[in-house]
Amino acid sequence: MKNWFNLSLDYRSVSLFRLALGLFISGQFLFMVFPSFTEIYSPDTGVLGNCFRESYAAAYNIPPFVFGITTDGGMVFFMAIITLSSFLFGLGFYPNILAFINCLLLWLFHSRYNPLYLGWEMYGTVLMTLAIFLPSRKYFSPFNYGENENKPNHFQSALGFAALFQVVVIYFYNGISKNGEKWMSGKAVIFFISEFDKARPAADWLLNHEVLCTFLSWLTLGIEIGLPLLVFSPYKKNFSRILASILILFLHWGIDFFVDVGNFKYPATCAAILILPTGFWSVFEKLIRYPIKAFHCWNFPIAKWKVKKPVEIIIAFSLITIILLSNLFNTSITHTNDRIKNILEKVYVTDALKSLRLVYLPQYSFFSQYWHLYSPDPPFEKGYLQVEIISSENDTFKVFRGENMGNKIFASSVQKYLYQYLFLKKNRNQKEQILTHCLLMQEIGLWNKKNRKKINKIEIVTYSCFPKNISELKEIKNNLKRNAVLWYDINYSKKN
Fold first, then answer.
1. Distances from the Cα of 15 to the Cαs of 105, 139, 154, 171, in angstroms?
2. What 3-state class would DSSP assign to 219?
3. The domain containing residue 43 runs over which residues?
4. Which of 71, 407, 428, 483 pairs with 173 at a CA distance of 20 to 30 A?
5. In which region does residue 297 sit, left (phi positive, over 0), alpha (psi from -120 to 50) or beta (all else)?
6. Within a domain: residue 448?
7. Which residues does 346 contact at the CB level (< 8 Å), separation at least 6?
């Protein structure tokens, strides 16, 4: 057992991970989803409301129960259930059962609103799925009391190894997928922080330090690819695991310091907590001079039964196999010029992966393992998307929710994420075409209700450029060109 100590998990890390993950998911619904309900999620008034639901379900043959909620009251109730169950999961209330329920509910929700299913939701859902298989007999508590004071704080388990493997493969596979020209030359961070609509004030300073940007580009690759070596290192095991946790936090919170990429830092923090070894808690207890224990959760009797090791190994092996096959499969069908994809084709693995038909596995769940974040390179096109109305008097208005936005680029964070999704996707798939149609039809209806100026036509417009060097990256705002992607005339017939 001693040789496998570095592959163990600490009960305190697991219980604090559970608490953090539950708070993250419930907080995401409370502070992001509910405040944006009217403009985005409402079946009656949202951009992704019943218009999108009906067209998307018909085009993709989606099971009716996924899109069965058609009223605002029903959707609010559904979202409230997710929020409450996630919060109770975090408190340790029947955590394995609630983790399973939450996975089902999140899968249904994100299937319904998949254009807003961004990377951090995927990260959180995957971690929630892992929580189904983690021990639930204890929860995190700062108080030292109860019957477990003399019991060991760590456990060895094949499922614990699978959990560690899941965390590291997210970073390792993402790291080896960053194999484009910009990453190899060290220019990726410069292109990344030049996203002017996401950049924070510190990005301007970093953009003027090219050598540091080059170093950070290669450091990112080093952290992501080297993470498995640290987590599974047989040398100075506690130190290497603590260092791995610190590097995950450094990576995500460091990125967020320069660029707003959403909520990646929160599920990443949950993952960093999960991999903290027993040695961390020993040092922490010495520093605060107070013992930290993990105590019993509320649970059904059946959830307290101990799974035999052969069964654990089979489940763990199955999870690891799904993780690997899902990543390789998604790489094999990607539209990007990925070097890993090219290698798979050269060794004749691509056809075998496609024959597995993993595309039919449930999306937006544990089975979604595609982590190509800024891979193989950051986007070459820089810019943003707008909806513009041209009145009968030939006046042009940038609009959102039927309101004139004036000189603003985005009226809300949800609009920013939605429009950036459309900007990157370029209306390639039928799903994006349906979303674009519903968006424009909604803007026409809201404009007619709120304004007296008649519409001549409505356009989806991009303001973008393709910078070729660092000087152009620094002057993106001056190089943006207006391009009408598609428009509708007053009779609402589509024109390319």
1. 22, 5, 12, 23
2. helix
3. 2-360
4. 428
5. beta
6. yes
7. none
Nearest-angstrom CA–CA distance, 98 and 128: 9
Q: Same structural domain for residues 333 and 407?
A: no
- Same domain, residue pair 61 and 152: yes
60-98 per-position pLDDT tens digit: 777 677 788 899 999 999 999 999 999 999 988 888 889
Angle between helices 265-274 and 11-28 (to 10 degrees): 170
Query: What pLDDT score does 414 carry?
Result: 79
Residue 294's pLDDT is 66
Query: What's the confidence (pLDDT) of residue 41?
Result: 92
Say if strands 455-465 and 139-141 run parallel, antiparallel, or are unpaired: unpaired
Q: Three-class SS of residue 332? A: helix
> Which of 186, 176, 191 is CA-nearest to residue 223?
176
- Separation CA 97–CA 102 (nearest Å): 9
Verify that 464 and 423 share a domain, yes or no: yes
Instruction: Point out the residues of the chain with pLDDT beneath 50.
Output: 1-5, 140-148, 300-305, 490, 492, 496
Among 82, 87, 89, 100, residue whose Cα is nearest residue 139: 89
Output the pLDDT for position 138: 53
Helices (H) and strands (E) in the chain, counts: 20, 10
Question: Cβ atoms within 10 A of the Cβ of 69, count?
Answer: 20
Residues 66, 160: one domain? yes
> CA-CA distances (angstroms) from residue 435 to 56, 118, 344, 398?
8, 16, 33, 18
394 dihedral zone (left: phi>0; alpha: psi -120 to 50; beta): left
CB 87 within 8 A of CB 28: no
Taking only the tens place, the pLDDT of each residue in 211-256 is 999 999 999 999 999 999 999 988 888 899 999 999 999 999 999 9
Q: What is the gyration radius of the CA atoms in the chain, in angstroms?
A: 24
Tell me how crowded residue 58 is: count the other CB atoms within 10 A of its CB.
11
Give residue 306's pLDDT. Answer: 59
Specify the pTM: 0.88
The closest alpha carbon to 137, from 22, 299, 291, belongs to 299
Residue type, 317: F
Q: Tell me how many domains the chain contains.
A: 2
At residue 277, the pLDDT reads: 92
- Cα distances (Å, whole numbers) of residue 66 to 96, 106, 111, 467: 23, 11, 7, 42
Do the beta carbons of residue 81 and residue 105 sit within 8 Å?
Answer: yes
pLDDT value, residue 143 = 39
Q: Enumerate residues 6+ apart whose C-beta is below 8 A from 340.
A: 176, 177, 179, 331
337, two tokens: 């010029």
Q: State the angle between helix axes of 158-177 and 265-274 in degrees (0 to 180), rounded to the nearest 10.
A: 140
Residues 413 and 351 in one domain: no
